[in-house]
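Request: Have a read of the protein record below and say how the chain folds.
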Amino acid sequence: MKTGGEPTLAVLGATGAVGSVLRGLLSERRDVWGEIRLLASPRSAGRKLPVRGEEVEVLALDEEALEGVDVALFHLPDDAAAQWAPVAAAKGAVVIDSSAVFRAEDDVPLVVPEINAHAARVRPRGIVASPDCTTLALIVAVGALHSAWGLESLVLSTYQAVSGSGREGVDTLRRQLAEVAGTDLGTKPGDVRRAVTGGGPYPAPIALNVVPFAGAGTPDGWTTDEMAVRAETRKILGMPQLPVSVTCVRVSVVTGHSVAVHARFENEVTVPQAHEILAAAPGVVLCDAPGEGEFPTPADAVGTDPTWAGRVRRALDDPQALEFFVCGDNLRKGAALNSVQIAELVASPG
């Protein structure tokens, strides 16, 4: 039931890690919502979780629970999103979906409010997609520079936290760290691999290691994560032919994705101008005084909303290219915050 004509919001996947962050954001931000419904699997039904200072009972996700919903935030696995998003849309809700199911669909807008807020207004299927957490770590900073200088190409290397793999990734890292703590492992070929038990979602140990393979493999040697960052960046910027090359790497960080960016533009660039653009960009914090030890790291970005940008340099061999490093919390802007921002766009009049 609506309160004073305010829209009803449903949060699907309210009990997960992203759902927890999302509930916190709904309590912190300007309140534009009437009723907020928390929906999850039947095994979680009946739990009470805090949102906006109140304990709200979790409902089982079914068709009845979606009746009267105006905006539905989906943070569900791909198969569940594919099943339930069309149902919610058919019942009149605007679906904001964070799964990979709809991002590449031509008739589903892929939205980052700081860059293409207008796209959220045109939604033929009643669904708006939110990008992958890795794309969201970089796109706000890249988009600001593109608006000023005109982007020609991107070369990206990611450093992705294990929370991007869900609870299993975090549990795997913590277990492996406990197994290698206090040892001299990492000094002989294969000693870490032999010492840790179970790789979890990763094809190699994640403790004391980096794994240059995120997602599933493709026939031509890329990974699904790499292809997703390429496709999503092109779609958000409205540049379907933009050259984008990505190498995705999983690192032993719990939360906070990082990306090393090589961006080439239409005209010559300078570091002072880049600093001005990034410092003024919505959703970006400039942190760039490396001589004083000031540069972005995931340990500093975790728990914060912006993209942190630093290590800004003009390429040594190309006056039209810029090198920089960005970090962002993959559970906040990388998931919960972007979907909340889209929902607020949808709920706003005009």
